[in-house]
Amino acid sequence: MVSIREDEVMVLLHKLAKTSCHGFVKVELKSKLSELTFNNIMRMESVISVKIGASNPGDFLPVLRWINYKGVEKTLVRLGKKMDAFMQGLVDENWRGNGKNNNMISHLLSLQESQPEYYTDQIIKGLVLVPSLCSEPLIRCNIGH
Hints:
Helix content: 55-70%
Number of strands: 0
Low-confidence stretches: 136-145
Oligomer: single chain
Number of helices: 7
């Protein structure tokens, strides 16, 4: 059996070979390597989710949501509240630092001063959370930034 990484590398090589089948062509590798890394992460994550049973049966059978099968909905709401409280704590901690910290939250809070209607705490928390959910630091590491 071919590993996920080997399979994704083979897919990339086939795409590159198909692109250059009529001779030499210029290829922008940064996006190709980002796609390779993203595909690897997503496939590995799906394998792990299946192996540990992390999928929500209610996603496949909506009737299970109505009866709150295994308390999944309540657990997700509780985890969401915990995550929101944690993120709000990060925002508050950086707000008290008065811009002394050199991080994403501090920069967004400085933008909040000039555009408070756009840079709400909710938007800042979302902007901070998205890269961590998308494994962006791992992608940067693999690409070599």
